[in-house]
Amino acid sequence: MVPTQYYLILSAILFGMGAVAFVVKRNIITIFMSIELMLNAVNLAFVAFSQARGKLDGQIFVLFVIVVAAAEAAVGLGIIIMTARNRQSLNVERVDLLKL
Amino acid sequence: MSAPLIVFFVLAALAIIGALSLILQKHPIHSALSLIVVMVALAGLYLLLGAEFVAAVQIIVYGGAIMVLFVFVIMLLNAGAEERTNFSRLAKFGGLPLALALTGLLAAAMVHYGGAAPNTTSPDALANTSNLSNMLFYTFVYPFELTSFLILVAIMGALVLAQREKS
Predict the structure, then answer these.
(1) Which end of chain B is more exposed for a tag (fewer CB within 10 A), N or C?
(2) CA-to-CA distance for B13 and B11, rounded, in angstroms?
């Protein structure tokens, strides 16, 4: 058996890398992908906890997270298409209407 | 070292390399392919944890549906290589330590509060798909039905957002 701690540490590493990618990347699609990476890291923690506690609730929650991620991807990519059409660019630096 | 541990380390290394590649690649399509590697590695880890149904859903929904959507949008918008911009000095020198601090804090908190939980049931009794479906369709049937409504709203939202304006 692999200790639960290993899964939790891997989950934290993946979440940290997702957060870094979210801040560092400039392409709006890649930023969106790093959100998916963070969601995946959280899912791994859920399944690891579910296994450690011997209860299935964590896995049910993972299924709901996946459903919400799918809905979020559909709406988010619609927004990205709109933005790209209006700005003629995928760089988030160009989307600065709310900037002072 | 036992066999599950070796499999764990191989899959974990694959996931971390994929995530690193997601950060370092300049072209969005390469980042998308790296993300698919991460997702497949995570599906393997779910199998190792004894969560077969979640592993299957991970491959089908994440690796299949969602990533196809991403790749489709990248090709639709003809996304080129990313333009680099300069970071501020604070971001350049403070960013990496802060990211490491976040990772360490998360790992320490999760291991401290949840890592030492007692394993009450055997892995075989846990996580077979029929138990999962029983819970999903008895205990959690109301949230489950709500998700279908959520998907419906998301489809309508995506259609409204992405359609061309009529002039």
Answers:
(1) C
(2) 5
